[in-house]
Design brief:
Elements: E1 5-10, H1 18-32, E2 36-41, H2 62-70, E3 73-79, H3 87-95, H4 97-103, E4 110-117, H5 122-135, E5 145-149, H6 155-178
GO molecular function, one term: oxidoreductase activity
Keywords: Flavoprotein, FMN
Pfam families: FMN_red
């Protein structure tokens, strides 16, 4: 079996903030579990807003989408802005519409989400991410929706939150390892029995 590949997608405009730090901890654990990992910061790629073209990905995000398509799984991390994901990440999610329109190109990939919050909205944010990705055929292992409250968390709560981050890295790798590595997924519409 080939080595599992996990892509980390940082949706924060800050490349060295808490969101990025937690994402890197998750990817570090994925490496410990035997995966090859890569981190991308959307702020380095996004130069324009989604214009509604569902036939092609914008040129500035094409390389990120290619990395996503080549990975077995991915972790998306975002700060919470006004009870939802960052505008960088929302724009990226809109760009991924082409993958769903084309042929559900993300079907069979494994994913998880990390949202960092100051006051609230983390749970809503990870759910707002999970919905579209679920519709695209992405699978989620246990403990894959993480929200990290920076302001209200006690030190003891931070300890288990950080363990959850590492558990996310482990579970994405383990789930990706048990899934088929070809295009013959068992949830394919064409394989439905009548």
């Amino acid at each position: 079996m080939s080595k599992i590949s996990i892509l980390g997608i940082n949706g924060s405009p800050k490349k060295s903030g808490l969101t990025s730090k937690l994402l890197m901890q998750c990817l570090d654990q994925a490496q410990i579990e035997g995966a090859k990992t890569q981190l991308v910061h959307l702020v380095d790629y996004e130069k324009s807003f989604f214009k509604g073209d569902t036939h092609r990905v914008s040129e500035d995000l094409k390389s990120v989408v290619d990395l996503l398509l080549g990975a077995n799984g991915f972790v998306v991390a975002t700060p919470v802005h006004w009870m939802n994901m960052s505008s960088l990440l929302k724009n990226f999610l809109d760009e991924l519409t082409v993958l769903e329109e084309h042929n559900f190109d993300l079907e069979g990939k494994v994913a998880g989400f990390i949202a960092t919050e100051n006051e609230g909205g983390g749970w809503q944010t990870v759910l707002d991410l999970a919905g579209p990705f679920s519709h695209m055929g992405v699978l989620f292992p246990p403990h894959s929706f993480i929200f990290y409250n920076m302001r209200f968390s006690k030190k003891s709560e931070r300890n288990w939150m950080e363990k959850d981050i590492r558990l996310l890295g482990r579970n994405i790798v383990k789930m990706a390892e048990i899934l088929p590595q070809d295009d013959e997924y068992f949830w394919d519409y064409e394989r439905l029995k009548s």
